[in-house]
Amino acid sequence: MRLLLLVALVICCASLRAQGNTRALIEWTFDQDAQGWGAANHISDLHVADGALQGRIMDWDPFLRGPEFEISATPWQIIEVRMKTDCGGGGEVFWTNTTESPYGGFSPGKETPFTILGDGQWHTYQIRPYWHKEGKIILLRLDFAKPDPADAGKKTFAVDTIRIVEPTEAASPQTQAAWDFTKGAAGWTGGEATATGLQFVTGDDPQAALLSAPLRVPLGDRTWVSLRMTVDKGSTGTVRWVTSEFSGLQAQDFSIRPDGRPHTYNIDVSPSQRWAGDLLLLGLTPSSAASAKATIHSIAISEEPLGPPEVTVTYAGLENAINRVGGQCPFAIHLTNQGGETARDVTIADLKLPAGAKAEESPDWRKLPELEAFDFVTARFYLSADRPVDGDVEVKLAGTGVPSEPIKAKIEITPGLGLPKADYVPEPRPVESDYEIGALYFPGWDNMAKWDPIRRVGPERKPVLGWYDEGNPECVDWQIKWAVEHGMKFFLVDWYWSAGGRHLEHWVQAFQKARYRGYLKWAMMWANHNAPNTHSEADQRAVTQFWLDNYFNTPEYYRIDDMPVVMIWSVGNMDNDMAGKGGAKRLLDISQEMAKAAGYKGIYFIAMKWPEAGTDPAIIKPLAEAGFSMTSIYHYMDHGGKAEDPRHFPFKLCAESTYPWLKAWYDADILPMLPNLATGWDSRPWHGDRSTVIYGRTVDLFRDLCRDAKRFADETGIKRMTLAPLNEWGEGSYAEPNKEFGFGMYDAVRDTFCKQPAGGWPPNVAPQDVGLGPYDFPEPVGRFAWDFANGTQGWGAMMGIGSVGAQDGALVFETNSPDPAIVCSLNNLKAAKYPYTIIRMKIDAVTADNGMGQLFWTTPTAGTAEPASMKWKLIGDGQYHNYVVHLAENALWRGRITTFRLDPCSHAGAKVAIEEIRMSEDGK
Fold first, then answer.
1. Is residue 426, in this structure, part of any structural domain at all?
2. Which tens digits make up the pLDDT trace of 604-618?
3. Residue 774, preceding bond cis, omega within 30 degrees?
4. At residue 702, does pLDDT exceed 70?
5. Taking the model in full, what pTM does it have?
């Protein structure tokens, strides 16, 4: 809803700036009759009275449909609606250039939202649809706000006028691409011009925006929005735009520094495929926070980042989760330059340590390398202590563009446990509990390319095991030990199957080799993110047979009511693939028949649903009818309706709303439930500024949440529950022992749900306490050629590939989905130096339609996106060929490259060998 309101406000504000008079292209005044407008849905008593079209709003999707007409569509046309209603909220105007669609010409994505005031007073709503790419418009649909269920049939509306207008005296669009607001507003509206820039204060509605005059600016290679701004509050701003090539208003969020000081913000909009053609409108919401005060000094559209060096410290602290007296404790400072100019003179000017700590200073440790725009640099030095330390490290930087205040970081160096060196992971000491506690587990951590975004963006999340290889049975034995010593009895592990292809199996395979696997049960959470129309009855038989042959017959496989458990992510995908053929029910029936024929009592299927689906019987009953035995969810990340910003709110709201949410779910009393205990959400390592952020998670708040869950269990008798993912490190849902919380989250579970043994809890032993580890993958190095003579050299499977290995000097693998990819994290690769990459690869077959390879790349400011990629034609004869990819032909091959993703083909069953990948200056 927040996004809907935000878009609506920007559109309405834009419309208020129409210059001079307007002329009506078409108008409905309802003086005598409805003029072709009719009740299409959830509206009754439609009639004309007192010069207005009036009616009653009956249910959740009320709208009126207009008569056919025809106008040519242009960017600056305005829909004006004069109406009053006592039903406020989000409204929409749908528009179309055809009558051919499942919805009578209308379709999702061709609508413009706006905010309806429910005060019963007349208001004129001016809505800019930016529908110019439609060519013509022939129909409108007016959607009113959805009433509360208790108010259905009680709310009314009256529409006085609907018309489409356009300015008759519109000024010629501006062609400039830079604005210095210290010299005036330059045609921008929404703010107050001052000597220092445009001043803007977010009012009661935090979605207000500054807007440019009409523009006609060719974008070409100009993919940066660079602005200089001072803001005192909030976490994110939003840049908005309209272009000639796409209908509608586009938007991209960016992080802000709300310290009341001027900063340069360079926003890379290249990931958006809708930043193309001519720029017609530019908008800016400086901060999403209410009452935020901002001054915008300048804005420019450019080919490169602009502005002086802006050195930002993204992290400072000890690198490892466990730091013991007598050991070497690396301390890291992560820096990036968000300005356009190179920072050449950054040094550590001063270092203050708490009592008991000392630094092991190496030569030139104070001098940092140059930071070009958006470089990522780690300054690292080592601390040690001969006694426990708990205090602050203070670091003062010097140089152009560095923070003026010292960097402070709390450190703790704890006493060793005095344990002897072990040859292997110490044997688990399970603790007893009357509750059956499990956890969801994401097996996504089998190469450093997966870990590197976490290392860069969320280094405080570093696990106690380090940046570890989940395919290592020794790491899995540590996970088993810690889980059972804190009361956990089973894992529900994300598992992938699509049309016979499987991937991310490394954790299960390592678990099956683990020494202590008998201590912990596991079951599949089938993440059936399958492409449409790829699952059938035959595929269901195949996947069930795989379960029977490989999992159900092992003693560690988790059961409920003596039935092996399978949780399924998307029932909807199954229903869609089996539309008209029995839906998900038919597929589950097949599996039940096969399991029973194999001697099992049946399969205990658990359906995933989402918190926002609530406890609506219309959603839960079909799950029971399809054959599911239980419902659950993957994440609980709700706020109980109390968040001012649903994309940025405190974890405290999650903790407080868990108990009433569980009670409401339980009271629905349709299917048994598997409660879910929130482990947070902050997906910035994966999704950057587009992320939802639930901040302020603490061990104490999580302990409160556990206590409420125990209270719910004691009241209802539902004593089986799961922690939300233990290790979605990229999405920010994690509890496995880590740098940020140590063993605190696990301890909260144990202290709440378990019985303390007479001798006390088992100690929380880390690998270094018994002389084991580290298990970290090596950090990315500055490699620009890979010959695979000594292993995979940092490349690993991303998706659609079972496993990747090095054999006879080549990287070898087989694809098992139509979207296979391998990935490698890079370090310090300058795009300008290497216009080409050469890939020596063989593939045994390609299809006529899918005979293309593709290389994607990411930068510090742009994740994986289709615009930042290059394709080439494959030769599928099973022989090696050199594919020379001219990367510099793509304007987005620029700056520093952080990751390669190589899609070797677009089909399953291909045998691939890659003998060499190397960067080249000349394509030779």
1. no
2. 999 998 755 566 777
3. yes
4. yes
5. 0.86
